[in-house]
Amino acid sequence: MLDTSALIMGLDPLGLDFDCYSVPQVTEELRQQTGPSFRLHASASSGKLKIQSPSKASLTEVSDKAKTLGDKLVLSPTDTTVIALALDLRKQGETPVIVSDDYAVQNVAEELSLTYQSLATLGIREKYNWVYYCPACFRQYSTGATQDCTVCGTKLKRKPLDKVATKQRGS
Ligand SMILES: [Zn+2]
């Protein structure tokens, strides 16, 4: 489960295909988290994930906007960076969609007229086929029906079976 606003989708003008963007801070934060790291790695290695840092101008714009929304909105430095990158992408003519379940992120995005969607809405979790495996004896399980290895009792881990089934750009 992604617990930071990790991704921005940059839709093409027809809305048929998209690239994923994220900021260096997110990959740093997710490095220790098995599931999301796997996903980011899978995306990056398939060329769909672009790691970029936003411009200072956009960072300032996002910070200022968050301040005007009041003290209740706590935007982490990473969240600020992600929203700022979305702003940059819009200035470059893309149609960015911020993917986040975070209330503060969604509010600031709305104030900046940026589009956002929650992970649940996108059904991102359902896009992945997981394979469950025992880290001790390496038996594989096709479902998460059991939490522990039926042979040695070790708690099962999981990893994505396939890369995300998104269309490739014809480049
Ligand atoms: Zn086992």
Short description:
The protein is of the alpha/beta class. 35% of the residues lie in helices and 18% in strands.
How can the largest sheet be summarized? 5 strands, mixed
Low-confidence segments? 1-5, 123-128, 163-171
How does the overall form come out from the CA principal axes? elongated
Order of helices and strands: EEHHEHHEHEHEEE
List descriptors.
171 residues; alpha/beta; five-stranded mixed β-sheet; 6 helices; elongated; binds zinc ion
Structure notes:
It is built from 6 helices and 8 strands. The chain has 171 residues and is of the alpha/beta class. It has a 5-stranded mixed sheet. Strands 7-6-8 form a 3-stranded antiparallel sheet. Helix 3 crosses helix 4. The longest helix is centred in the middle third of the chain and has 15 residues. The radius of gyration is 18 Å and the shape is elongated. It starts with 6 loop residues before the first strand and ends in an 11-residue tail after the last strand. 26% of the residues are buried. The site of zinc ion (ZN) has 8 residues, from loops.
Detail the topology: elements first, then pairings.
Layout: E1 7-11, E2 18-22, H1 24-30, H2 34-45, E3 49-51, H3 56-68, H4 77-91, E4 95-99, H5 103-111, E5 115-117, H6 119-122, E6 130-133, E7 140-141, E8 157-160
Parallel strand pairs: 2-3, 4-5
Antiparallel strand pairs: 1-2, 1-4, 6-7, 6-8
Helix pairs in contact: 3-4
